[in-house]
Amino acid sequence: QQQVKQSPQSLIVQKGGISIINCAYENTAFDYFPWYQQFPGKGPALLIAIRPDVSEKKEGRFTISFNKSAKQFSLHIMDSQPGDSATYFCAASFNTGTASKLTFGTGTRLQVTL
Amino acid sequence: DAGITQSPRHKVTETGTPVTLRCHQTENHRYMYWYRQDPGHGLRLIHYSYGVKDTDKGEVSDGYSVSRSKTEDFLLTLESATSSQTSVYFCAIARVPNNEQFFGPGTRLTVL
Questions:
Q1: pLDDT, tens digit, for every residue of A79-111?
Q2: How does pLDDT run across B74-96, given as a tens digit for each residue?
Q3: Contact B42/A102 with Cβ under 8 angstroms?
Q4: What confidence tens digit (pLDDT) does each residue in A59-79 have?
Q5: Band (A1; pLDDT cuts 50, 70, 90)
Q6: Contact at CB, B105 and A105, closer than 8 angstroms
Q7: SS3 sequence, A55-94?
């Protein structure tokens, strides 16, 4: 059962444009929502994360928007650059009592064209 | 890279053979995780550890076992590899519960 749904599966954006990736979750016990960036042949790298007590978090060109009532969150990449071309994963975490467990979306392959 | 190494980085093996993947960390983190990554599935948790000799199952644990006899090493074993276990395996660490996880470089395993 997939608990985190991510869309779109792939995205093509022109240089300088805005890239938007959306995720929706079902489990209201999730309390931490990170985004990971992955380049081919590399491990996922933490990009930005948010907790549900805030509606938006911005770090440089990357912004997470969080809608707790709708159980949705999104990643916005402003002024997208060719170097941003990668696969992006949203995730959601909850604490089991012994550790936190991440559930990932299926990923979005972003291509930024010149 | 949070001081995480994985070995081997690539392995080709045959169905029915045992395989052990190693995750090694140098920063004394308590929490360690094993994930597999497959197209269309994202990353899925296999097993995790919350201390030496303390482990628990993730969502896709069938066919896998783990061991953690030292803080720095977390081993993933496929007792009898199957073709469905062909995947890229990632180890991750977390400094505290409910906090960021950092991933290693991955091991690409092919089971023929």
A1: 999 999 999 999 999 888 888 889 999 999 999
A2: 999 999 999 999 999 999 999 77
A3: no
A4: 999 999 999 999 999 999 999
A5: low
A6: no
A7: CEEEECCEEEEEECCCCEEEEEECCCCHHHCEEEEEEEEE
∠ CA(A99), CA(B34), CA(B64), 5° rounding? 110
Nearest to A95 among B49, B98, B100 (CB): B98
- B89 to chain A: closest CA residue: A43
Three-state SS at B84: helix
Banded pLDDT at B98 (limits 50, 70, 90):
low
DSSP 8-state class, residue A52: T
| SS3 state of residue B85 | helix
By Cβ distance, the residue of B50, B56, B104 closest to A43 is B104
Interface residues of chain B, partner chain A, Cβ below 8 Å = 1, 31, 33, 40-45, 48-50, 54, 56, 58-59, 90, 94, 97-106
Please tell me the predicted confidence (pLDDT) of residue A94: 86
| Amino acid type, A63 | T
The alpha carbon of residue B59 is apart from the nearest alpha carbon of chain A, in Å, by: 9
Q: Measured between CB atoms, which of B40, B48, B103 is closest to A99?
A: B48
Q: Assess contact for B45 and A101: CB atoms under 8 A.
A: yes
